[in-house]
Amino acid sequence: MDTIKTVFWAIVLALGIRTVAYEPFNIPSGSMKPTLLIGDYLFVSKFSYGYSTYSLPFGVNLFDGRIMASEPERGDVVVFKLPTDPSIDYIKRVIGLPGDKIQVKDSILYINGEAATRELVGEFVTRTQDGSIQRTNRYLETLPSGFQHYILEETDSLNPLDNTQVYNVPPGHYFMMGDNRDHSQDSRVLTKVGFIPAKNLVGRAEFLFYSKDTLEPIWDLSSIRFSRLFSGIE
Question: Annotated active-site positions, please?
Answer without folding.
Answer: 31, 92
